[in-house]
Design a protein that fits this description.
By secondary structure, the protein is of the alpha/beta class. The chain has one domain: P-loop containing nucleotide triphosphate hydrolases (Rossmann fold, 3-Layer(aba) Sandwich). It contains 5 helices and 7 strands. The chain has a 7-stranded mixed β-sheet with strand order 1-3-4-2-5-6-7, sandwiched between helices. Strand 5, helix 3 and strand 6 form a beta-alpha-beta unit. The chain starts with 6 loop residues before the first strand and ends with a helix.
Length: 195
């Protein structure tokens, strides 16, 4: 995966604005403030390609980044309470429209905060991906914030908290330390070779 030519392509606030799929796409999904933009920046070896904010719910559009013959797609974070019902509805239509569309969706990276039990929205998204037959990997973010024993406890808990946990690839990731980055790049390389 050559990240040297990674660049921001476009943002779309409504599903109907998104052009047809013309190359493989790797989508990043997760709760607001789970670290999608930080992960994308780390993955693409950039400081601020994807805009990072301490305020949850900042990414309210679907953002496309062109990389080496494929797209990285940053989906809006779901589950943020402090936005209007209209805005929540627009986000839901945007995310669902994208995931239901006939796109060249190579893989979804479903992000979950390693420190916490998955939210009801996280479980709903995982169930949706399983039911739709969309290939996905779970990325456990903010791994650096947990001590070894806490990690072990969370790993064990995820086995009962996440549906079909034993059949899902889970990668522990930290935007701070870079843990998991090479593993994620390796997955993208493997999938793009198969395309």
């Amino acid at each position: 995966m050559n990240t040297n030519n990674a660049e921001f392509t476009a943002s779309y606030g409504l599903f109907k604005q998104i052009p047809r799929s013309d190359r493989p796409e790797f989508a990043f999904s997760g709760h607001s403030n789970v670290g999608k933009s930080s992960l994308i920046n780390k993955l693409l070896n950039r400081k601020a390609l994807a805009r990072v904010s301490a305020t949850p719910g900042k990414t309210s559009t679907i953002n496309f980044f062109s990389v080496d013959g494929f797209y990285i797609v940053d989906l809006p974070g779901y589950g943020y309470a402090k936005v209007s019902q209209n805005e929540k509805k627009r986000w839901a239509e945007l995310i669902e429209g994208y995931l239901h569309d006939d796109r060249d969706l190579a893989l979804v990276f479903q992000l979950i905060d390693f420190r916490h039990k998955p939210t009801a929205d996280d479980i709903m998204m995982i169930d949706f991906l399983i039911d739709s037959g969309i290939p996905f990997v779970i990325v456990l973010t903010k791994a650096d914030k947990l001590k070894k024993k806490e990690r072990e406890a969370r790993r064990e808990a995820f086995r009962t908290e996440i549906p079909c946990a034993d059949d899902i690839t889970m990668i522990e990731f930290s935007a701070e330390t870079g843990e998991g980055v090479e593993e994620l790049r390796g997955i993208i390389d493997d999938v793009t070779r198969e395309e």
